[in-house]
Design goal:
alpha/beta; single chain
Length: about 550
């Protein structure tokens, strides 16, 4: 259009800078990929830099000139162009202002009642890399230079009249003042966005997630990041398509099913009364006594026999060892700590002759079959599926853990196939997983410790061979230092556990279709966001199972 011709010079500068930026990013990315992988923090920093460069490069290649959303003309300066990302040319001139920056707030927040220092605002609509439409909004007489002025509500309605694509269409250019106020609200506590279908709740939630990650230093990826929870996988596909257009690709997205291993195959709960019973916070709370049942020290002492001396282990000493793990330690990780404390008690208590090596005595205790059996019985390794399955299979266990249930309710919750999981079981499985921890953790830790020890032993042999061959005093002195020997151990070759990206904790959680979540399902999210920083999006009137209380009460 002719009326955007005065923007062409600026667009040309953006285009040239984009080409330079893409070339520079490509070169830097290739350099990083060719660099040695390193170990530990060095390897992590390299991976993060590669991820950052790749994400930036992908965004620039995806959008091109349509990174530019529009421009605003302040009453005391030249036009300022607002983009999905910030962009600066080689001389340091700002070509695009990131839409999430405080300086860009008037582009979305200005109204005729409060122009926020603007003379005018222009929004673009892009089609295949070219401007197909635009809107000028004028806030003062100085802005009436041959422009067709539309108020912001008219611009918004006009934008909604365009054809809809199979993907969620680009709506960043249509954000209005009232929506922008919600997007830029602080992250402390819970913010509720309630409204009917088509009111733009999801649009606001997406922009808010991208804005908070950009603007709030407490929410950055290294500080926990943002989790976006949607109702189903097709919805997440829409989300994945939209977030990069907002300049953000580090938001984790999931459904509630994704939070639990095997959750995708859980079937719906057929019995509404069973679903109701399992949907309560009280039922989730039953997991704690269910776990504590398996952390009970023996009530009687035992004699621990070794080749050198027999040691009496009293009931009080059992209890002392079981109290060793700090509060909040997952059951399966605390098990290792309790075992180490138990062995230490026995070693310290033994009256050994001077010719008995302590390490040999310790190994003997560690391998004592009766002691190992007694410990495994008192504090076994547990799987979440076994723990929850037992609740639906052993009535006495359920009565012990959930005394709030009536006898009829206990009977109702029993089933022939206790591990045929339903959606109603997922909050309980998740609570059990959180409380137990990964049963593989201790096994992995032992394998890692053994691998590091083997690597250290191998390097010791290498060092000794070098010392025998090299007679330079300086080299020999350095190699005899334990710190140098430890530095030679390649711990990067030791396998690490895969990280669960949905385990949290997250600094902020956005929940869409939140009116459908039960109290038990909310516990799955609260445990992943200790700060209680939430954006809650929903429509109480659309709740399938009723929503009589207020959002605050829920």
């Amino acid at each position: 259009p002719a009326l955007v011709a005065d923007d062409e010079t600026h667009f040309a500068a953006i285009s040239a800078t984009l080409e330079e930026s893409i070339a520079d990013l490509s070169e830097r990315l290739e350099t990083e990929r060719r660099a040695p992988g390193g170990t530990g923090q060095e390897a992590m920093d390299r991976d993060l830099e590669i991820h950052r460069l790749t994400a930036r490069l992908s965004t620039l290649r995806r959008f091109g000139l349509d990174l530019c959303l529009g421009r605003m003309v302040p009453d005391d300066g030249d036009p300022v162009y607002v983009g999905r990302l910030g962009l600066t040319d080689s001389t340091g001139r700002r070509l695009l202002l990131d839409w999430r920056s405080p300086a860009a707030e008037p582009f979305f927040g200005a109204t005729h009642a409060n122009p926020m220092g603007l003379v005018s605002r222009r929004r673009y609509r892009w089609t295949r890399g070219r401007i197909s439409d635009y809107w000028d909004e004028v806030f003062s007489p100085e802005g009436l230079t041959s422009r067709a002025a539309l108020d912001d509500q008219s611009a918004f309605i006009a934008s909604l009249g365009s054809d809809r694509s199979p993907r969620m269409r680009d709506v960043l250019g249509t954000i209005q003042a009232d929506q922008d106020a919600i997007i830029r609200a602080g992250s402390r506590g819970a913010l509720v966005v309630d409204g009917g279908p088509g009111t733009g709740k999801t649009v606001v939630a997406l922009h808010r997630a991208a804005y908070l990650l950009y603007s709030d230093p407490l929410l950055g990826h290294r500080r926990g990041g943002v989790l976006f929870v949607g109702p189903h996988q097709p919805y997440l596909a829409y989300i994945a398509d939209v977030l990069p257009s907002l300049g953000e690709d580090s938001v984790q997205t999931c459904t509630l099913r994704d939070l639990v291993p095997g959750g995708q195959v859980a079937r719906p709960e057929d019995d509404p009364e069973v679903a109701r019973l399992k949907s309560t916070v009280a039922m989730v709370a039953a997991i704690e006594p269910a776990v504590r049942f398996y952390e009970s020290p023996p009530s009687e002492g035992m004699e621990v026999e070794t080749p050198w001396v027999d040691v009496w282990l009293s009931a009080d000493e059992w209890a002392e060892a079981f109290d060793a793990p700090p509060a909040g330690t997952p059951h399966n990780e605390g098990r290792d700590q309790a075992w180490e404390e138990l062995v230490t008690i026995l070693v310290d208590k033994a009256d050994l002759d001077e010719d008995v090596p302590e390490d040999q005595f310790r190994r003997s205790v560690l391998q004592n079959a009766e002691l190992v059996t007694a410990f495994n019985r008192a504090w076994p390794l547990l799987e979440a599926t076994d723990l929850v399955g037992d609740l639906w299979e052993v009535p006495a266990y359920l009565r012990l853990c959930a005394p709030h249930l009536s006898p009829d309710e206990v009977r109702l919750l029993q089933r022939e196939e206790p591990r045929a999981w339903t959606v109603s079981d997922l909050p309980l499985l998740d609570a059990a997983q959180q409380r137990l921890g990964d049963p593989e953790t201790s096994r992995r830790r032992r394998r890692r410790e053994a691998a590091v020890a083997a690597e250290r032993e191998r390097m010791d042999r290498v060092v000794e061979e070098i010392l025998q061959l090299d007679d330079e005093d300086g080299m020999m002195a350095q190699l005899r230092q334990q710190g140098i020997r430890d530095a030679l151990v390649d711990e990067g070759a030791v396998p690490e556990a895969d990280l669960d990206l949905l385990a949290g904790p997250f600094a902020h959680v956005v929940v869409d279709e939140a009116q459908e979540l039960t109290d038990a399902e909310w516990q799955m999210l609260l445990v992943r966001c200790p700060s209680r920083s939430f954006t809650v999006v929903g429509d109480r009137a659309q709740a399938r199972h009723g929503f009589a209380e207020s959002w605050q009460e829920r």
